């Protein structure tokens, strides 16, 4: 199976070299696609230098609309065009363990559309988070699953693998989210369109040690608004035409 890892980045200069080196060591058969949102700290340049040394790493430098969702969509379209079978995503800050990547990719098969590295199934967990953040994340995932009628414990995990076959059946440019709500939206579309199984496999999430988190109140607000709107449309039919497809 031909696989690629998409790594959206913005100001990850403190992490990117160590991260790419670790992924190349732990998942040597998976190519890497760094998609950088014109980071002012030089993340893309560092990634390019590492790519020259390690190989099988491509760097896309974006200058358009910044954000997790548009960067992910651009990278996914590039990966599909390049003929990959499995398309993974993870963060570059070591919150996701590169040693788990091969296992998640191995779970993709002809019946599976999405494999989620899940914090909230048996064996999964979170470290270095205060109680408030743990509660907020757990509540947010329960609320998202309820609104979108998803049988998923961790709708918002960014450590996941998609089958290219499923992505080809999604209008990626027609999706609504700009930020991390994109993760819930993708699971929602895959479920609604019945594109294949969604499987959760346990991971332990570790809060970043270097750099700054990209999560902020605007991103959380966007997720809450979209999930609530979609849940309302599912149950009432009002605004159904605005549901992601």
Describe what this molecule looks like in 3D.
The protein is α/β, with parallel strands linked by helices and 245 residues long. It has one domain: Spore Coat Polysaccharide Biosynthesis Protein SpsA, Chain A. Helix content is 40%, strand content 18%. The protein contains 8 helices and 9 strands. The chain has helices at 16-26, 43-54, 68-81, 101-106, 131-148, 164-167, 181-192, 217-236, and strands at 3-9, 31-36, 57-61, 86-89, 112-118, 125-127, 160-163, 197-202, 204-206. The chain has a 7-stranded mixed beta sheet, with helices on both faces. Helix 1 runs parallel beside helix 2, helix 5 (131-148) packs parallel to helix 8 (217-236) and helix 7 packs parallel to helix 8. The model has no long low-confidence stretch (mean pLDDT 91).
List keywords for this structure.
alpha/beta, Spore Coat Polysaccharide Biosynthesis Protein SpsA, Chain A, seven-stranded mixed sheet, globular
Rg for CA atoms: 17 Å
Shape: globular
The percent of residues in helical segments reads 25-40%
Number of E-type strands: 9
Total domain modules: 1
Q: How would you classify the quaternary structure?
A: single chain
Could you give a short account of the major beta sheet? 7 strands, mixed
Q: SS-based structural class?
A: alpha/beta
Q: Which stretches are poorly predicted, pLDDT < 50 over at least 5 residues?
A: none
Instruction: State the CATH superfamily name.
Output: Spore Coat Polysaccharide Biosynthesis Protein SpsA, Chain A
Biggest sheet strand line-up: 3-2-1-4-7-5-8
Strand content: 15-25%
Per the CATH scheme, the topology name is: Spore Coat Polysaccharide Biosynthesis Protein SpsA, Chain A
Can you count the helices? 8
The ordered H/E elements are EHEHEHEHEEHEHHEEH
Taking the alpha carbons of the first and last residues, their distance comes to 27 Å
Overall residue-averaged pLDDT value = 91
